[in-house]
Each structure stands twice: as C-alpha cells, then as structure tokens.
Design brief:
Strand content: under 5%
Mean pLDDT: 90
Number of helices: 4
Helix content: over 70%
Low-confidence stretches: none
Largest sheet: none
Shape: elongated
Oligomer: single chain
Radius of gyration: 15 Å
Number of strands: 0
C-alpha cells in the first residue's frame, strides 16, 4: 500500500519536473530571434519549435512521462537548452 503511494508520488514529481523543462525549452525557443539559429550553425528555428513543441505536448499526459516518447521529448528539450541555447545567447548577448 505504501509502496504504491510512493511510486505515484515519484511519477507525479517526474511528470511536473519533465513538463517544466519541456515547456521552458518551448517558450525559450519561441523567444529567440530566427537569425540566431542560422548563425550558430544549427538547425533552423522552425525545426526546433516543432521538436520542443511535440516534446511539450507529451508533457500534457502523465502516462507518456516515463515512456519512450516522453523521455525522447525530455532529451530533445535538454539538447536545446544545453546545446543550442547557450550558443544563441553567446551570439545575441541575451
């Protein structure tokens, strides 16, 4: 009985945490200027908006959080946040 409650709490915490990361990536990507994506030599802004947008959509359903699609969405959001975003900030200065 207690194990089930702990497991449910862990899944809830992960759902919220993963959702925040995915939505943060989507909002940040939408705010960045289009020319900055091309300047850093990465894929264009439209591609990243689609990828992190789909990732954010997976955050709306708790059942997808720990599934393959949810984890892939989290990885895509993290690649944007820690791979693309710092280089865009470096170029744009904000």
């Amino acid at each position: 009985m207690i194990f089930g409650a702990v497991q449910d709490l862990v899944v809830l915490v992960l759902w919220v945490l993963f959702g925040v990361v995915k939505i943060w990536a989507l909002v940040d990507c939408a705010r960045r200027p289009t020319h900055a994506f091309t300047a850093v030599g990465r894929l264009n802004k439209t591609f990243w908006l689609i990828i992190v947008g789909v990732a954010a959509l997976t955050a709306l359903l708790p059942a997808l959080t720990l599934g393959l699609i949810g984890i892939a969405g989290l990885v895509a959001a993290l690649v944007y946040l820690f791979g693309v975003r710092p280089r865009i900030i470096e170029i744009t200065g904000r």
